[in-house]
Amino acid sequence: MTAQKKLVMIGNGMAGVRAIEEILDANPTMFDITIFGAEKHPNYNRILLSPVLAGEMSIADITLNDEHWYSDNGITLHLDKTVEQIQRGYKKVITEDGTQSEYDQLIIATGSSPFMIPIPGTDKEGVITFRNIDDCNVMVETAKQYKRAAVIGGGLLGLEAAKGLINLGMEVTVVHDQSTLMNMQLDEVAGEMLRISLQAQGMDLRLATLTTAVLGKERVTGLLFADGTTLDCDLLVMAAGIRPNKALAEASGLYCNRGIIVNDHMQTVTDPSVYAVGECTEHRGVTYGLVAPLFEQARILAYQITGQGLKSYEGSVVSTKLKVSGVDVFSAGDFKGSPESDVIEYLDRAGGTYKKLVLEDNRIAGTVMFGDTVDGPNFVHMMQGNKDISAQRSSLLFGGSVLGDTGHSGVDMASAMAADTIVCGCNGITKQTIVDAIVKEGCMTRKEVTLYTKAAGSCGGCSGLVDQILASVLGATIDVATQDEPICDCTDLTHEQVKLEIKNQQLTRVRRVMDELGWKGEGCHICRPAINYYIGMIWPLKAEDERSSRVVNEKLHANIQKDGTFSVIPRIHGGETTADDLIRIGEVARKYDVPTVKITGGQRISLFGVKKEDLVNVWRDLDMPSGFAYGKALRTVKTCVGSKWCRFGTQDSTSMGIDLEKEFERMWSPAKVKLAVSGCPRNCAEASIKDLGVVGVKGGWEIYVGGNGGVKVRAGDLLCMLETDDEVMQVTKAYLQYYRETARHNERTARWLERIGPETIKQDIVHDLDLRRALVERMDFYLTTLTTDPWRDCIADEARPVEMRRFKEYTPIDIPVTAANA
Amino acid sequence: MSSDVNQEATVKWHSICAVQEIPQLGARTVRTGVMEVALFRLSDDRIMAVDNQCPHQQGPLAEGIVSGATVICPLHARKINLQSGAVLPPDSGRVNTYPVKVENGQVLLRL
Ligand code: SRM
Ligand SMILES: Cc1cc2nc3c(=O)[nH]c(=O)nc-3n(C[C@H](O)[C@H](O)[C@H](O)COP(=O)(O)OP(=O)(O)OC[C@H]3O[C@@H](n4cnc5c(N)ncnc54)[C@H](O)[C@@H]3O)c2cc1C
Ligand code: SF4
Ligand code: FES
């Protein structure tokens, strides 16, 4: 192995980790990477803290790189460790707690800190900033105890914080020293429209108000303003801007001004082995506070550090979107202009729409928009392309929307957009890249597009546009909301995609599926059992059932318990047993010292607490088939006594139940399947909360489907009424096979039915007789492949010589006691 | 030198079974009377040994799904690195690991 160079990064935030991702993309083995982060969390999407504050997203939702990502990429991660010193002479960094790390190359990505305005009292309890997860937690906790909050700063961050606090139930006043909200991003007209809109949403605003002191003893109780008035509050969020974190760099002798000064290759100008990226840097006199330029910096840094030739960072044009719900604002470039500027404007105050373009030499120099912002990315595109717009002057502000607005302006807009228009500003992703991901990579959902391209993965502001592009490429029929997620973290593919590939490529082994479909690693307890099931369902004859891809219960054919012992539940068809079976169960329980013998909720008997090494012997002595109480398989068919004994019984429910159980026992399915048969509508077998329930009525049977009595109770839907016992069998076969083929692994019928729609199912297996026949045929064929009982297989296996046994795990290996630890 | 000899007296290599007697991507339990060790066979036939007890609630690790050099506990799906014994984030904890070698197809475990 060639010696890897040591790369250390200080700061585990958005820009830094993006740079590492770009480096790994360019050359995954070049560096031995160590990252120090002052926060307790792995890299998360700081931009989405507001939804977390509003309770709409969890920390897990906004995590960008979880710990596995770091370990999978061989990165040493030190969380909750603040670097205190950079010793450039020794090329090492030292943390507060003395941890040291040497580097060949160093990246500083320390971000920035909120700025505390220099007034007395900001050290009081209840004065906080809005920068990280801890801040969110403080706000959430405060909102539980206190009523009134003030936010200083009417910029992007302040307004997001205010909105979040309102959602948490607090009364919020935003205090802003300027007379225009978001004055860095909006002109007076747009600022005023924003003010009206926010006030309508319940936000109290105090503009052109200078705060001079924070009042209160230990905890903040209010604010004092320059005009002598005051405001009561129990929480103060300071959102008056940010300052680059440069102190650490400065102390090590790196040249800093407002931020750490870097050249066009993101190297510090002082020390070529030290790079800096993100909000902590100053490039050509500019510091940035939005991710788009920082991600661009990250890419340039990766180019440089991996020796891929010289690409330069030349600064960025930034555009802003406000994420506060219900308000669309957009701005970019020199949107204010000067009194002499050439300006095109459209203003509809009452309708809440404002668009303005500042032109220079017939080219767009800046734009600000309120209300209708769909054309924002187009304008930025023209601005960056330095496009002469004289010819379009009169129609420009009516942009994409004039191209046949028939109520689907968004979709038209997406298709009318030029291929190289930036759709995702944060990540610099063009429409072309997204279209390629859809067409060439087969991305079908926004989530897949994000995985492939990163579009919509940061602030999410372009999610709608990505959906529209998806719709325009895939055809408007696709319902983006019902699209599905990948099976698990080991793959980007959905259940349906994997099933399709197993079929198309005739894959019959789990390992092959993972190899062919580009799995990450060797799979996990979620995907491997799923793949194993799909193979068995699609290729009932050719499939090689892979025991190592079954979870313990299905591998050992017994349910594991909290103490590592197992339960044994033999089949008792329809809950009807015999004296002989009962005696044998009793004898076995006594012989093997079974601690608990219990009647289960499924009308059968369970032996709890059987030791693993006794399992095979217990099964042999019981001499009954496995009840599959451990599997995603047919479980019980619950019955009532029915017409055989009951004075109300209209049908022989017990026999029907026994027949059904005998027909489908040993059937594997996406999740467990429970049936029941009641002899009359009194429904003593609880057929209405089963995966399929049969209820006897005079002259026939009612079939109920999609019931569940578990975590989320669901009463089954009436599927149909049938006259003969044979029809009940046929419809049950068709229904179960339909479920086996179309459900996702681990999806019970209740959820599946809601996803597919009861009407579809009704149409396909009740009314479409051809389809029903085909399903029955496939089920019948599948059932013929299920010839052996797993317990009997194990018993037979035990009779073979040791080296020929297939199921070795049941027997522990005993070796002599050692004195080692005694 | 002498301390080495002393250690040899208490800690030694035990011959366990042939490699083939452990299912690939599976495990066997080894009991000594005082403890239980899980012996795993990875997809590349490397053998690894850890205590057969998850640090969370003593789940029998030998029954877990094996993926790479990781086993996923059968009870609550904590992931344990078999090489280091570390429970993978977001959970934490550690199990003891034991040296294993294979000689002439026979698995030897040092306890
Ligand atoms: C043994 C039994 C309880 C009893 O003592 O009666 C039982 C025991 C377990 N149930 Fe159950 N369920 C038992 C009847 C039920 C029933 C009632 C029924 O089948 O009529 C239900 C509600 C009906 C339903 O499923 O719709 C039921 C709903 C669940 C659920 C929730 C399923 C759901 O879709 O919401 C789980 C959790 C799961 O499957 O993920 C569960 C999971 C479990 C597990 C397997 C938990 C586990 O993973 O270890 C339990 C195994 C204990 C063990 O050591 O073997 N058990 N479980 C019953 C076995 C019946 C049988 O003879 O096979
Ligand atoms: C609530 C909120 C909303 C936002 N919304 C948007 C938006 O809509 N669009 C947009 O483009 N941008 C938005 N931003 C800004 C965006 O999050 C930042 O520009 C981006 O996170 C900066 O990345 P960075 O890596 O430079 O800094 P950070 O992400 O802050 O990462 C720096 C990390 O370094 C750590 N660190 C600092 N010093 C040390 C040290 N000595 N040792 C170890 N670790 C250290 C810090 O703890 C921090 O975790 C928002 C920010 C916030 C707070
Ligand atoms: S309800 Fe079912 S899963 Fe819950 S403790 Fe009882 S047996 Fe176990
Ligand atoms: S016992 Fe292992 S995860 Fe709970």
The small molecules bound here are: siroheme, flavin-adenine dinucleotide, iron/sulfur cluster, FE2/S2 (inorganic) cluster
Considering the protein shown, what is the CATH homologous superfamily of chain B? Rieske [2Fe-2S] iron-sulphur domain
CATH topology name of chain B: Rieske Iron-sulfur Protein
Low-confidence stretches of chain A: 401-411, 476-482
Beta-strand portion of chain B reads 35-45%
Structural class of chain A: alpha/beta
Give, in spatial order, the strands making up the sheet with the most strands of chain B. 2-3-4-8
Multimer state: heterodimer
CATH class of chain B: Mainly Beta
Strand content of chain A: 15-25%
Tally of helical runs of chain A: 26
List segments of chain B where confidence is low: pLDDT < 50 over at least 5 consecutive residues. Answer: 1-9
Mean pLDDT across the residues of chain B is 88
Q: Strands across the major sheet of chain A, in which order?
A: 3-2-1-7-19
Helix-strand topology string of chain B: HEEEEEEEEEE
Summarize the structure in words:
The complex is a heterodimer of chains A (822) and B (111). Chain A has 26 helices and 37 strands. Helix content of chain A is 32%, strand content 20%. Mean pLDDT of chain A is 89; it is low at 401-411 and 476-482. With 822 residues, chain A is α/β, with parallel strands linked by helices. In chain B, the strands form 3 sheets. In chain B, strands 2-3-4-8 form a 4-stranded antiparallel sheet, with no helix packed on it. A 3-stranded antiparallel sheet of chain B has the order 1-10-9, with no helix packed on it. Mean pLDDT of chain B is 88; it is low at 1-9. Chain B starts with a helix and ends with a strand. The longest helix of chain B is centred in the N-terminal third of the chain and has 9 residues, at 2-10. With 111 residues, chain B is mainly β. Chain B has one domain: Rieske Iron-sulfur Protein. Chain B is 8% helix and 39% strand. Strand 37 of chain A pairs parallel with strand 2 (26-31) of chain B. Bound molecules: siroheme, flavin-adenine dinucleotide, iron/sulfur cluster and FE2/S2 (inorganic) cluster.
